[in-house]
Specification:
Helix content is about 50%, strand content about 15%. It is of the alpha+beta class and about 160 residues long. The chain starts with a helix and ends with a helix. InterPro entries: Thioredoxin-like_sf.
Protein backbone atom coordinates (compact mmCIF):
# COMPACT_ATOMS: atom_id res chain seq x y z
CA UNK A 1 0.00 0.00 0.00
CA UNK A 2 1.36 3.41 -0.97
CA UNK A 3 1.87 6.27 1.50
CA UNK A 4 -0.90 8.31 -0.10
CA UNK A 5 -3.44 5.52 0.28
CA UNK A 6 -2.40 4.87 3.87
CA UNK A 7 -2.72 8.58 4.64
CA UNK A 8 -6.06 9.02 2.90
CA UNK A 9 -7.60 5.97 4.58
CA UNK A 10 -6.21 6.99 7.96
CA UNK A 11 -8.14 8.55 10.83
CA UNK A 12 -8.42 12.15 11.81
CA UNK A 13 -7.33 13.18 15.30
CA UNK A 14 -10.98 13.49 16.29
CA UNK A 15 -11.68 9.91 15.20
CA UNK A 16 -8.55 8.73 17.02
CA UNK A 17 -9.84 10.36 20.21
CA UNK A 18 -13.33 8.95 19.72
CA UNK A 19 -12.07 5.36 19.86
CA UNK A 20 -9.78 5.96 22.85
CA UNK A 21 -10.96 5.06 26.34
CA UNK A 22 -12.22 7.81 28.61
CA UNK A 23 -9.06 7.66 30.74
CA UNK A 24 -6.83 7.82 27.64
CA UNK A 25 -8.75 10.87 26.37
CA UNK A 26 -8.34 12.50 29.80
CA UNK A 27 -4.58 11.88 29.77
CA UNK A 28 -4.24 13.29 26.25
CA UNK A 29 -6.31 16.33 27.28
CA UNK A 30 -4.07 16.93 30.31
CA UNK A 31 -0.93 16.72 28.17
CA UNK A 32 -2.47 19.01 25.55
CA UNK A 33 -3.12 21.66 28.24
CA UNK A 34 0.54 21.91 29.25
CA UNK A 35 2.23 21.75 25.85
CA UNK A 36 4.38 24.77 25.29
CA UNK A 37 6.45 25.32 22.16
CA UNK A 38 9.34 27.75 22.30
CA UNK A 39 9.29 30.78 20.01
CA UNK A 40 12.17 29.50 17.87
CA UNK A 41 10.33 26.27 17.01
CA UNK A 42 7.00 28.04 16.60
CA UNK A 43 8.62 30.36 14.05
CA UNK A 44 10.24 27.43 12.24
CA UNK A 45 6.90 25.64 12.04
CA UNK A 46 5.19 28.80 10.79
CA UNK A 47 7.89 29.25 8.14
CA UNK A 48 7.22 25.88 6.48
CA UNK A 49 6.03 27.12 3.11
CA UNK A 50 5.17 23.84 1.46
CA UNK A 51 2.73 21.11 2.46
CA UNK A 52 3.73 18.13 4.58
CA UNK A 53 1.71 15.03 5.36
CA UNK A 54 2.39 13.36 8.69
CA UNK A 55 1.40 9.67 8.59
CA UNK A 56 1.34 8.41 12.17
CA UNK A 57 0.96 4.84 13.35
CA UNK A 58 -0.44 5.12 16.85
CA UNK A 59 -2.55 3.60 19.61
CA UNK A 60 -4.09 5.60 22.44
CA UNK A 61 -3.04 3.04 25.08
CA UNK A 62 0.63 3.87 24.45
CA UNK A 63 2.10 6.54 26.78
CA UNK A 64 4.65 7.51 24.10
CA UNK A 65 1.80 8.16 21.67
CA UNK A 66 -0.08 10.18 24.28
CA UNK A 67 3.03 12.36 24.72
CA UNK A 68 3.59 12.74 20.96
CA UNK A 69 0.20 13.13 19.31
CA UNK A 70 -0.76 16.42 21.01
CA UNK A 71 2.56 17.87 19.81
CA UNK A 72 1.84 16.84 16.22
CA UNK A 73 -1.67 18.27 16.44
CA UNK A 74 -0.23 21.53 17.76
CA UNK A 75 2.11 21.65 14.76
CA UNK A 76 -0.91 21.31 12.42
CA UNK A 77 -2.62 24.16 14.27
CA UNK A 78 0.43 26.42 13.96
CA UNK A 79 0.81 25.70 10.25
CA UNK A 80 -2.11 24.43 8.15
CA UNK A 81 0.41 23.23 5.54
CA UNK A 82 0.92 20.24 7.86
CA UNK A 83 -1.74 17.54 7.68
CA UNK A 84 -2.01 14.56 10.04
CA UNK A 85 -3.34 11.12 9.15
CA UNK A 86 -3.39 8.37 11.78
CA UNK A 87 -3.34 4.62 11.25
CA UNK A 88 -3.46 1.84 13.82
CA UNK A 89 -0.44 -0.04 15.03
CA UNK A 90 -1.65 -3.09 13.09
CA UNK A 91 -1.85 -1.22 9.78
CA UNK A 92 1.46 0.42 10.54
CA UNK A 93 3.09 -2.91 11.25
CA UNK A 94 1.60 -4.47 8.12
CA UNK A 95 2.23 -1.62 5.66
CA UNK A 96 4.34 1.20 7.10
CA UNK A 97 7.02 -0.89 8.81
CA UNK A 98 8.16 -2.43 5.54
CA UNK A 99 8.12 0.90 3.67
CA UNK A 100 10.28 2.46 6.39
CA UNK A 101 12.56 -0.60 6.51
CA UNK A 102 12.01 -1.26 10.20
CA UNK A 103 12.70 -4.83 11.35
CA UNK A 104 9.68 -6.57 12.92
CA UNK A 105 11.23 -6.69 16.38
CA UNK A 106 12.05 -2.95 16.29
CA UNK A 107 8.61 -1.66 15.28
CA UNK A 108 6.98 0.55 17.93
CA UNK A 109 4.31 3.20 18.18
CA UNK A 110 4.47 6.04 17.61
CA UNK A 111 6.00 5.68 14.18
CA UNK A 112 5.76 8.80 12.04
CA UNK A 113 6.43 8.99 8.31
CA UNK A 114 7.02 12.59 7.27
CA UNK A 115 5.89 12.96 3.67
CA UNK A 116 5.98 15.87 1.25
CA UNK A 117 3.01 17.30 -0.67
CA UNK A 118 3.25 14.45 -3.20
CA UNK A 119 3.34 11.82 -0.44
CA UNK A 120 7.00 11.13 -1.11
CA UNK A 121 9.09 10.09 1.88
CA UNK A 122 11.04 12.85 3.65
CA UNK A 123 11.97 11.34 7.01
CA UNK A 124 10.81 9.16 9.87
CA UNK A 125 10.45 9.70 13.61
CA UNK A 126 10.13 6.65 15.82
CA UNK A 127 9.29 6.31 19.49
CA UNK A 128 10.91 9.19 21.34
CA UNK A 129 13.69 11.72 20.69
CA UNK A 130 17.08 10.14 20.04
CA UNK A 131 18.81 12.70 22.25
CA UNK A 132 17.45 10.83 25.28
CA UNK A 133 19.96 8.07 24.56
CA UNK A 134 22.70 10.51 25.61
CA UNK A 135 21.00 12.09 28.62
CA UNK A 136 19.15 8.99 29.82
CA UNK A 137 15.41 8.69 29.37
CA UNK A 138 14.93 7.98 33.07
CA UNK A 139 16.11 11.55 33.73
CA UNK A 140 13.28 13.08 31.65
CA UNK A 141 10.58 10.40 31.50
CA UNK A 142 8.25 11.93 34.10
CA UNK A 143 8.31 15.32 32.34
CA UNK A 144 8.07 13.66 28.91
CA UNK A 145 4.96 11.64 29.74
CA UNK A 146 3.33 14.69 31.34
CA UNK A 147 3.80 16.80 28.18
CA UNK A 148 6.61 19.05 29.38
CA UNK A 149 9.20 17.93 26.80
CA UNK A 150 7.31 18.86 23.63
CA UNK A 151 10.20 20.97 22.33
CA UNK A 152 12.38 17.84 22.30
CA UNK A 153 9.91 16.09 20.00
CA UNK A 154 9.56 19.12 17.74
CA UNK A 155 13.32 19.68 17.65
CA UNK A 156 13.93 16.20 16.25
CA UNK A 157 11.04 16.33 13.77
CA UNK A 158 12.15 19.72 12.42
CA UNK A 159 15.73 18.49 12.21
CA UNK A 160 14.60 15.45 10.20
CA UNK A 161 12.68 17.83 7.93
CA UNK A 162 15.89 19.78 7.36
CA UNK A 163 14.67 22.85 9.30
Amino acid sequence: MEYKELFETGMSYETFLSIASASEREEIAEITKVISICEEYTNKIKSLDKPYNFLLSAESWCPYVRATIPVLVKMTEINPNIKLGIITEGRGFKFLREKLEIPEEKYVVPTLAILDENFDFVARYIGRPKKYRNIGFENVSKEYFAGYRSDDIIEEILEKMGK
